[in-house]
Amino acid sequence: MNKLELIDALRSETKISKPEAAKIVDLFFNEMSEALAKDDRVEIRGLCSFFVKQYGSYTGRNPKTGEKVTIAPKKLPFFKCGKELKERVDKG
Predict the structure, then answer these.
(1) How distant, in Å, are the alpha carbons of 43, 52, 65, 76 from that of 33?
(2) Do the beta carbons of residue 38 and residue 52 sit within 8 Å?
(3) Could you tell me the residue range of the domain that residue 64 belongs to?
């Protein structure tokens, strides 16, 4: 499912207009993005959680030249599946 399909599902389920449904979906994802940008955790009970992991700098290698390079510290978002979602997908 992509964003447009999610908007259409919301529109048909709630009988609201497509622009209103798009606004709600955009608001949802924007709020999630803002929370993660502030290093907050986003948890949707029974479904999943999103959180940010921080990695320190380390020494890596350029695969073409073999030269050592310093990799800068970084933050990456992570997704963790909830128990109920795992069970639902497993029963498929």
Answers:
(1) 13, 11, 37, 12
(2) no
(3) 3-91
What is the reported pTM?
Answer: 0.78
CB 7 within 8 Å of CB 26: no
Between the CA of residue 17 and those of 5, 27, 30, 49, what are the distances in Å? 14, 15, 20, 29
What's the CATH number where 51 sits? 4.10.520.10
Which amino acid would we find at residue 63? P
pLDDT tens digit string along 42-71? 999 989 999 999 999 999 999 999 999 999
Number of domains in the chain: 1
Cα separation, 32 vs 30, in Å, equals 5
